[in-house]
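help with this record:
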Amino acid sequence: MSGRDLVVHLDERFAVVDKPAGLVVHPAPGHSGETLVDVLGDLLGGGEAERPGIVHRLDRDTSGLMLVARDDEAHRRLSAMIKAREVERRYIALVRGHLRSRSGTIDAPLGRDHRAPERRAVRGRGAREARTHFEARELLPAHTLVDVRLETGRTHQIRAHFAAIGHPVAGDELYGGGSEPERQFLHSASLRFAHPFTGEALSFESPLPEDLEQALARARDA
């Protein structure tokens, strides 16, 4: 896999990349395979040495758009924008069941699950504020296709929040979403933000990858 193949936007200060599912973002204890940091190589810069350029993350099996820095000043500015919620991040998810409301906000602090530390849970250990906004896009026989907007960006936020309201993301076995499709149906579909140096309004979109399109077709026919 070539890092350049993943690039949606590239300038001298930052890049937007379209991460495939199955690729871990940066090296971590217990993971010895190739990471996004390895694939992008010298396209990245700034921040911590073991995860250069990374200002926000996607889970291994979540696909879609990510914003990465190319130097220290870009990393500082982009990180500050993420923290100040000046980067609009929208996702598409397929969740099990039918939501009680077509739109709403899940406002519930998330921390480590006391019984399973690899999971996040509402009011778990070290819980921090977390807000997820959603709008139903399509009702299917046994699922709901939803547009999701993150206000905060906690680990596993979308997955844990929808599991907490009884509608886990389809295919997310860690949070009770079953084994169909083969990975969690969660895709980072849109990024909107102002260029950190010029102020230019920028917008990027990523269509559903083929595996999720196929899973959606199966869910519609269920």
